[in-house]
Input
Amino acid sequence: MSLLEIKNLHASVNGNEILKGIDLTVNPGEVHSIMGPNGSGKSTLAQVLARRESYEVTAGSIMFDGKDLLEMKPEDAACEGLFMAFQYPVEIPGISNAYFLRAALNAVLKYRGQDEMDAIDFLPLLKEKMRLLEMDERFLNRPVNEGFSGGEKKRNEIVQMAVLEPKLAVLDETDSGLDIDALKIVAKGVNAMRNKNRAMVLVTHYQRLLDYIVPDFVHVLVNGRIVKSGGPELALELEEKGYSWTEAEPAGARR
Amino acid sequence: MSSTVNQINDLTQQEYKWGFITSIDEDRLPPGLNEEIVRAISLKKGEPEFMMEWRLKAYRYWAQLEQKQAEPKWANVKYPPIDYQALSYYSAPKQKKELKSLEEVDPEILDTYAKLGIPLHEQKLLAGVAVDAVFDSVSVATTFKAKLAEAGVIFCSFSEAVKNHPELVKKYLGSVVPVTDNFFAALNSAVFSDGSFVYVPKGVRCPMELSTYFRINAQNTGQFERTLIIADEGASVSYLEGCTAPIRDENQLHAAVVELIAHDNATIKYSTVQNWYPGDKEGKGGIYNFVTKRGKALGKNSKISWTQVETGSAITWKYPSCILQGDNSIGEFYSVALTNNYQQADTGTKMIHIGKNTKSTVVSKGISAGHGQNTYRGMVKILKGATGARNYTQCDSLLIGDKCGAHTFPYIEVKNASARMEHEASTSKIGEDQIFYLQQRGISKEEAVSMIINGFCKAVFKELPMEFAVEAQKLLSISLEGSVG
Output
């Protein structure tokens, strides 16, 4: 059974239709990359998957692990194993990273009917994940994302993903704002989490990320539709020819 | 065995000897206020001459203000005029109808108790349920009494203090908030029914937080309450007033006065959790809480610290302040004020720097939800002689929804050029993106909101005594229930 099955997905923001019929199937263990120019609907797709309310689904269906994702609240989707790494991680003043992440993990464990974790058991786990992302321990007690640099915020997202161990991770422009060293660290963290049960959807504008996280499939999103799909070589072709190349022949690609 | 049972029976059946219940006759004076009423109050309480004179002085000042309709009108709150002559100024605290079990209590209230995590026996006390043997509270009270007496700390009702320690009352009463201070303070001085009195002698650190006791007795607080706390040289005391459990009261107008005096090297920490009935969701009913609280850091190196969590009352008018008279004295004000539905709060502090090298810190967190209106009003005044004075003020407002309001009126007056002043202020809306971020990690919307609010208030909560910090967090969540759609 596929992990994620999107069929004919249409979605609007403030009455403007952004997604105009997306079909996408993701199986466990696969890494898919969604590429496309600015304004093509990439981030909208990510937000819809994370069940953000302001994004209205007007048609189509999304099945996640055999369940109707569109029936779920954002927190339920998260507890079912869907994780999104945010393009712009949000600051939560006054709440420490460690406290927040334990609350999140315990919410997920509780939803699944498992025992919650106390601080003593949780701390070593979190420290281990932070080492993987080369994050200093002082980030444990700092308020969530407050005063973090762009790169630190993105690494913090991957730390969270490593703690929550989702079935499906949606990485929304995780490479944006990263210098090459930070990008390598993030990629290392993401690659360490690849396995046969976990799937990932990488939303990105640039091919650069895919040098470090090599996808199984690449899809090109233009004007709310997937106009081209292929293997990792498609990303390189895009890098060379630009998105206008795909826009020039969408009709051919669709038919 | 039987003697133990008898002891318990004796303990539970006797009146609280060491407590705030004073025996007052059941009668009620006719409504209205005049000199005769003030005299009658003082006579009924069996007060010495000086008290009656003091009350009369207060009354005369208040009466001429009332004539001129000079009730303070500068606060950013709206309410219909109060007919002071229609109120009754002396009535014995009514014996609450005793309930036989918790099952007779309003389920909504029980629900709140449960959410706050209040132990069962305290729930019974708070709700006024007849208790067979209140082991815990009796033992707590007894232990308290012994410990405090051993340390030489006087902690009693105001009426008892007037009877047993008139010299202390005479010396300190009105020395921080004079009878002519303001309309409501004058009214309180004329008619106050009771309150509490604390005296910590020289060099004594009060051996416990004066809090647990207060919590279980909070239902006895009156309409016009008077508190006087004195820490003599080198003494220290931490006092907690109020209660996180919701308090209902048939008296709409509450005008309390609190005075604190700290001598050389003394420290007073005063914490408040205020959860008076805020009125219903449409803004009907609710308490008017017009309070004057002021501390005098009289001696050198003395310190007065106010911490308040204000979630109740329809209208809050309250400015716990510090007069920093002694050299090197310190004043602190940490506040969380929350207004939901149609609540209005106008609260803040005054820091008056008189002595050299005096230091003050003000941290105010205002939260507005529903149609709530939340005003921070603060003054920092550096007088001419206050060389080397320092102040740090941080004033943050958080808005939930788009029908509420946050207002800030900071006043700064500096007459000594060596003063160092810092003022930081922010206003933010609780972000849909913050809530969504937490939800995406598996945390429910309500928990997300509560987490964000608690993070916002952290700098204040960490000043509260431990167990109250936990309850205060829960209280905020409960007070905000349903405010985020």
